[in-house]
Amino acid sequence: MSYPLPLGQITPTQIPPSQIPLSQVSSGQNSSSEQNKTQIREQLNESLKVRDRRLTPNDLRELLRRFSQEQTKIQELLGFLGFALRSFNNLNQFLELIPLVASRVTDTDGGALILFKNSGARLESIHCPVEGRNGISCKQVKMAIEQALQASLNGSQAMLDQIVSHHLGADVHLFGTSILVKNSVRGRLYVFSRAPNYTWSETRQKLMRLVADQTAVGIENNALAGELIKKERQDRELEIGAEIQRQLLPRTNPNIPGLDVAARCHTANRVGGDYYDFIPVSKCDRWGIVIGDVMGKGVPAGLIMTMTRGMLRAEVLNGHTPGKILSHLNEAMYEDLEKSHRFLTMFYSEYDPNSQILSFSNAAHLPLLLWRSQKVQTLDTLGALIGLEPDSEFEESEIRLQTGDVLLYYTDGITEAVNQMGDRFDEDNLRSCLQIACHNQLNAQQILDYLFEQVQTFTGRSRNSHQDDMTLVLLRVE
User: Are 413 and 466 in contact (CB under 8 A)?
Assistant: First the structure.
């Protein structure tokens, strides 16, 4: 680091010979050339005498000692700043050090840190000189910066610099640099000095920039830490939601007389919007079999699915027909679904083991696939989405099942599964796979496993990488 002499002490005899302009050694237009040469020699000799007198070996040793001390001080300050960046968990504690370190490494009287936030610019921290040093007081600096912030609302950085400099006074040298986080200006770091001979050298500028960069790293680290904490909290909430949903879905398949039952739900996220259930009706004289799909996925869809399960089970206890059950469910859920801007599709059916009659009603869900006599057909009725209209009516129908029949309930995550080429699995592929599995006289679980394997093979993805929830419920009449 250079140590320039005070401007007031610089004299012509102190200027090195190579830097003496001829205009300073010329005696005028009427002087002769020989006189000019004599004067130059005399000034050079005098300069050499002065230089020799000032730069003794002791002087050189003193300069080297001071230079070494200054370098050590700067290294220790920057090292301390790095330690603080790694150690402090509180960003405010770290930011309190910034003006102090900036002023020390640049050898100025003090410093200030201003941060730009959504609410506007504010003075974050300040380091003021000892009261009375160079005539600058901490109160004066703080007041000047706060007045500048008030006067520069919605102004540019250049305007802020000018106003701060104006309020500090014309005799105070102000130097500033931006705090850049991801190419976005997040604040300004200032140092100031009233020393008349202070020079803003390139070395001091680099040190100032280094402190500003460390400040930006601290701000960014704090933001990343906050995001990490938020993500961890969301992950815990998702885990809790997923666990609740797993508890609400049937843990095991029920023993329904005359039926071989298999079911599985794969969620795209930890919490999904697909839903299926087996509900005993009239002391297991009948069984309600339902599948549903909430528009969307994730936590909102999972919450609606959970609400739907409770309300549907309560409605089934009233003993109404499938069409009435869906109608009453729509009336009860309409207001909540409208507020959340979501809808629900559902296929509800009831099976009577004694008569082998399956009665059903559909609320805009995908129709059931029935494999009978080596053919695949559909079972469907007319009905709107749950939550679309408050007074929707739902048709209902029934069919007597026969030995060997296979019924497949499914959600659109199966038929809309996409492969690497962008092609969908679609209903035709599902029908073909169901036809093959049933023709080979597999049991319900084997058919279900085969269908999921075919979807996975088609998409080329692992079981946990699908883009939508996928649910299958399969009944095989024995």
Answer: yes
**Residue 38: what pLDDT?**
52
Looking at the DSSP bridge assignments, the partners of residue 290 are 277, 348
Is the full-model pTM beyond 0.70? no
At a CB cut-off of 8 Å and minimum separation 6, what does 210 contact?
A: 78, 105
* pLDDT at residue 408 is higher than 80: yes
Whether the per-residue pLDDT at 26 is higher than 50: the answer is: no
Q: Domain limits at 207?
A: 87-225
Within 10 angstroms of residue 278's Cβ, the number of other Cβ atoms is: 17
CA dist 450 → 278, 412, 427, 437 (Å): 22, 18, 16, 7
DSSP line for 112-152: EEEEEETTEEEEEEEE-PSTTGGG--HHHHHHHHHHHHHHT
In a domain, 74, yes or no: no
**pLDDT (tens digit per residue) in 74-92:** 777 777 777 777 777 788 8
Say how far apart CA 450 and CA 433 lie, in whole Å.
8
Which ranges of 192-321 does DSSP label H, i.e. alpha helix?
202-248, 299-316
Question: Same structural domain for residues 364 and 470?
Answer: yes
